[in-house]
Design a protein that fits this description.
Blueprint lengths: L1 H10 L18 E10 L8 E9 L3 E8 L3 E8 L4 E8 L2 E8 L3 H6 L5 E11 L2 E9 L7 E6 L16 E9 L2 E12 L14 E4 H10 L2
């Protein structure tokens, strides 16, 4: 039970909260692919490498990823209705697990665990220029340089609350280790609308209902 709950916490690191920002960002529709490297500390070589693909039409987000615990899964996030579904298949059964995101007002009033300091410098990711920023959190031994696209809204990821743009390269620390995300593909193009739907073959249920099913199958 505890391991499954931790799995969901790791899964939603890629964007299931709703954080609003005062500055204006340009509309974005397209596809982003991140390489995700897991290591047991910030200084050691990766022990595992996987990939995460994000699609968006600026109102909906679809994230395709893979975990060791439950294999492949899909996250569908509705940025206007403030809710999301996690789609996965367990024991030949398909589930769409619904969660509600924070409201805009609640998100604005909740503190961020990160402190950001803008720095000179930039780096290109698949040809697109990203700005450097120094990020500090209490579990970092020292500030870490990361990169972001200042003209793109971070709402697609929501990985680092308070960052002034969409992260291009960033780090997240969890109980399982340090995840290093690096954008390797950037594509601005219209995506098929059916990417953001919930197939009829998936059973919609709450997180608690899903956990009850998993407990019964143990």
């Amino acid at each position: 039970m505890k391991n499954l709950k931790r799995f969901f916490l790791i899964l939603i690191l890629f964007g299931c909260s709703n954080f609003s920002f005062s500055q204006n960002y340009k509309p974005f529709e397209g596809k982003l692919v991140y390489k995700v490297e897991l290591s047991d500390s910030f200084s050691k070589k990766p022990i595992e490498t996987k990939f995460v693909t994000l699609f968006t039409d600026d109102k909906m987000v679809r994230v395709e990823s893979e975990t060791n615990q439950l294999g492949s899964q899909i996250l569908i996030k509705h940025l206007i209705l403030n809710k999301y579904y996690i789609l996965l298949e367990v024991n030949n059964q398909k589930y769409a697990i619904q969660h509600l995101m924070e409201s805009d007002s609640a998100a604005q009033n909740s503190p961020s665990k990160y402190t950001f300091t803008k720095k000179f410098g930039s780096k290109r990711f698949d040809g697109k220029k990203a700005k450097k920023i120094s990020v500090y959190a209490k579990y970092f031994a020292e500030p870490i340089d990361m990169y972001y696209f200042k003209n793109l809204n971070p709402k697609f990821l929501d990985a680092l609350k308070g960052i002034p743009g969409l992260p291009a390269e960033y780090y997240l620390q969890t109980e399982d280790g340090v995840f290093h995300y690096t954008l390797i593909q950037y594509s601005e193009e219209k995506q098929p609308t059916d990417l953001y739907g919930i197939p009829s073959s998936y059973k919609k249920l709450s997180f608690d209902e899903f956990m009850e099913i998993m407990m019964q199958q143990q």
